[in-house]
Amino acid sequence: MAIIIVGLAFWQLGPVFLNKTPKEQGLIQLNYWGFWDEEKIRLIIPEFKKLHPNIKVTYTPQSKTFYRTRVQTQLREGSGPDILQINNSWLPLFALDLAPAPKTLIDLDEFSATFYPVARDSLVVNGQIYALPSEINGLALFYNEDILKAAGVTPPKSWQDFLDVSSKVTVKDGGQIKTAGAAIGTTNNVDFWSEILGLLLLQQPGVNLSSPFGSKSAEILKFYTSFIIDPRRKTWDQSLQGSTQMFTSSNLAFYFGKFEQVAAIKTLNPSLKFGVVPVPQLPGGQVGWASFWVEAVSKNSKHQREAWEFVKFLTQKEVILSLGVPPARIDMASSVTDPLVMPFVSQGYYYKSWYLNSAVADSGINDEMVSFWKEAIDSVLGGSPPEDALKILQPKVQQVLAKYKNLL
User: Fold this and answer.
1) Helix (H) or strand (E) holding 323
2) CB count, 10 Å around CB of 28?
3) In order of start, what are the domains of the chain with their CATH numbers?
């Protein structure tokens, strides 16, 4: 009877095994979730397979809407992807779900020599690497070339220059702003307002973002809101359209945005003449605001080593070039010649990051922090002293940090 059963099993399954090559029988399947352009990543994956014929990577493009909670829920249920994109500020949210990189694949010395310091600050915990970047990204200052040319001014390098130039190019009619000098000062119609505020706080000596109550932070709140409140500095108004719309319609001189906005602006207004420069600085300092997407590996993946091999493959020079992003690799900086890309790369060495990213939709540390800072800014715009707003803000900030303290 046993012989008959074995024979029957072979008769049923034998052709399946006989039709498979040894490589196919040992095929490793990797699922990858991310936000890359689908056409670009689908051209890259076959190049990886040439090097690793036994690994098949399946890419599934994602929407950023509820992405963080969606992917994390699936990871914890054991059904999520092997490889996933996360924001560089998300490590406090994901560290318990991720597998650190094998040191035989990439160690800290190689990591530090390859990528900008902000990558190590964001992605390394207790000497372990939890993700790798292909891109470097953050805030830069966009400017309308025609508006600046008509006023005979150049893009500012310092905040004092920014104040002077943005005031000069602001056009008002009967007290109403027709051409805005700079989109800054509010929370309701300034895209990336929290990143701009975070940049100012990081640039200000003496500010502790984890404990923001104090005179130095109060100065920043006064400065940020002065573009609305102070008649001498007023370059923006809460009644205006959103900053992206104002800029693309040629009614705004200065606009803060990230690399993705370059393509978005070109799509919205192909004829707009604009340039991009690094963000303004305080005297004697250099600090930029970084926010970028990175690749990580699930700790529940059955093929962590192979997944990490693919993640590292995405950081190779040729791959980054084909992705068309500001390169995360230090050794690629000199090869960037596009003036609309260069500012994002040139700030690489002095980028810093914190939990005030408004465009990542994490329903977590960033969104919670942004909501509390919004209350503070709105209260100052409503007439409250900055010191009072910060006094109310401080325990809320510390509450958010305490919520995630086991991973910070």
Assistant:
1) helix 317-323
2) 15
3) 27-137+291-346 (3.40.190.10), 140-289+364-403 (3.40.190.10)
How far is 163 from 262, CA to CA, in rounded Å?
A: 24
- Kindly tell me the sign of the dihedral angle through the C-alpha atoms of 108, 114, 116, 118: negative
The C-alpha angle 186, 192, 193, rounded to 5 degrees, equals 25
Residue 375 tokens read as: 């209350």
Q: What is the pLDDT of residues 122-150, one digit of tens each?
A: 999 999 999 999 999 999 999 999 999 99
Secondary structure element (H or E) that encloses residue 84, with its range: strand 83-87
Question: How many Cβ atoms are within 10 Å of 369's Cβ, its own excluded?
Answer: 23
Q: Round the average pLDDT of the chain to a whole number and report it.
A: 93
pLDDT of residue 15: 39
pLDDT by residue (tens digit) across 19-37? 444 444 589 999 999 999 9
CA triplet 119, 206, 360: central angle to 5 degrees?
40
Strand partners, 177: 172
Q: Hey, how many other C-beta atoms are within 10 angstroms of the C-beta on 95? A: 20
Angle between helices 38-51 and 304-313 (to 10 degrees): 120
Cβ neighbors of 252 (< 8 A, separation 6 or more) are 144, 179, 180, 182, 183, 243, 246
Integer Rg of the chain from CA? 25
Integer Cα distance of 177 and 237 in angstroms? 7
